[in-house]
Model the fold of this input.
Amino acid sequence: MLFFSRYGYGAQAASHLRDHFGNVSVRNVGSVGGNLWMRHAHPDFASDLYVVLEALGARVGVRGADSAETEVYDLGQWLGVDMEKKVILFVYLPALTSQHVFM
Done:
């Protein structure tokens, strides 16, 4: 119950992703990281997932091959980051209760 009290959008976001993103075959072989990499490599790539994550205030954690530090970026910032020899370690979704309103 704690999850849904801290992430009030969780059930609605999951339902939206299930009902409106790709078809079953695409969802079975795709990944969040792959979708974000496509958006990074091809700025004109129409990524619905990127738009949803950006609206939620998601951030990405990135680490380079020669670094012990993880850098965290807003999605918009991350699009400008040189990703040579770097990987996405995580996508952070902020805790937003059902009291938050998106306009």
About this structure: The chain has one domain: 2-92. The helical segments are 2-6, 10-20, 24-29, 32-41, 48-56, 75-78. The chain has a mean pLDDT of 80. The beta strands are 59-64, 71-74, 86-92.
